[in-house]
Amino acid sequence: VSQRGNRNRRLEPKILKIMQEEIQSDKGVKSNAKKGLFTCWSVVVSRCTEAGLLPPSRRTFNSEIKRLMTPEELKKAREGEKAGYDLEIPYLSLDRETPKHGCRVFELAHIDHTQIDLQMVDESNGTNMGKAWLTVMIDAFTRMILAWVILFDEPSYRSCMLVARDCVRRHGRFPKTVVSDQGSEFKSRYYETMLAHMASHKRMRPKSKPRFGNIVERVFGSNNTQFIHTLVGNNQALQSPRSMSRTHDPRSTAVWNLRAFKESFDRYLTEVYHSVEHPALGISPAKAMEISLLQSGTRPHIRIPYTREFVITTLPSNKQGDTKIQKNVSFKVNCIEYFAAELASYAGQSLEVRYDPYNVGHAFVMGKAGWIEGKSMYYGQLAGRTEKEIMAISLQINEINSRSTLREKDRALVVGDFLRGVRLVEDNLAIQTQAARDREQHAADEGTDLVTVPPEETTNVINLPTQSARKSDTRAQREADFENMTRRTYGDF
């Protein structure tokens, strides 16, 4: 009974052809201008009326769109590939052709960056330092955060090399495969050289498909909700600036410095994230790592020693890649001067350089016999400090030096405005002086005094002031005029 009736299309073939042409046309429904469906249907009605056909209803036109295109295809055609990515069907099960998370610890790891949603201040004077960047390396199989670094610099190959160095320092091992996005820092020569030195493979996620990195993206979301957004000075209020009061501006209420935040973040990872049961695992990441090491083995033959040569290999270089040796056996990196007596024979030469963002007390240049260590002016300040203190102090020094150009521009603006005002005052004084000289000359030529009394007021004058008194009055008037002019010019200061 359900199959009875006429199952053929009741619309005329010409009407169907007009609708399909409007739907498939790049100037119709598929237009990247996102034309409204009512507008496209109006074009169909106009063409059908012109051809003497009965126009289809708007509901029929919308049904034809759904018949010819899926919602994913429609959105990709009208808004682009990125917009239609959310409508793609995710993987519901894992098989041989599906991206996997590895079968043991240290087999597959993800590296990614995010800007910490918290305003930082300088530990010494409380100056606002802005937001820092967090770089994380997470093991895909156990969800353990193997390494992490915090820098004020934007993500670059330096961040990647430092997180690799931190992983070896903590675990003595490095993942066999590292997955990253299509960022330029993951395509640099330094990053690929470092992976080759570690005997590790590089895999890159497809462009504009964050689902392939959902493991590390989920970590960033958990860090915000569980830890960062609970701190004073977090940036939640800035997400709606029009309704934010000045008393709640995180840029003025910030209290966290870099060293305190790093210590607290380290405790959060150890006591909370690594110890709490993970929904995808059913156990905590720390327990999953312990079980995986028992099953797959500790593999001592692939351990990487944390030696001086390894540290220098993973250190970043400056933008130029080299530095010039001065006659006083010094060289500069990031506006910091380093000294080494062994550089006396290299004066005037440009040598390859490496610096440590976590310890500004030293830097290295490549000599004929190997790396030469240079010590900076901050070496005495860092002596006797713990490793965490040296890292925090060094990061703040690097950030202050990186902002030197901005501060120099601010100073130049203030000085320039002041000097322009001074020149204006000097010009006015020169005009006043020339006018006074002209009056003097005019009085001398006529043989009269500087101040003349009108005839109608002579009867009211009892004692006229002397010439010296009148000159003192004129000088006082000039000084008063100068003071008033200065106050008007620099009143804002």
Notable traits:
493 residues, alpha+beta, five-stranded mixed β-sheet, 43% helix
Q: What gyration radius follows from the Cα positions, in whole Å?
A: 37 Å
Mean pLDDT: 79
SSE string: HHHHHEEEEEHEHEHHHHHEEEEEEHHHH
The backbone outline, from C-alpha atoms, is flat
| Structural class label | alpha+beta
Characterize the biggest β-sheet.
Answer: 6 strands, antiparallel
* Helix amount: 40-55%
Q: Indicate the low-confidence ranges by residue numbers.
A: 449-464
Strand content: 5-15%
Q: How many beta strands in the DSSP annotation?
A: 13
Instruction: Give the end-to-end Cα distance, rounded to a whole number of Å.
Output: 92 Å
Strand order of the largest sheet: 8-11-12-13-10-9
Count of runs of 4 or more consecutive helical residues:
16
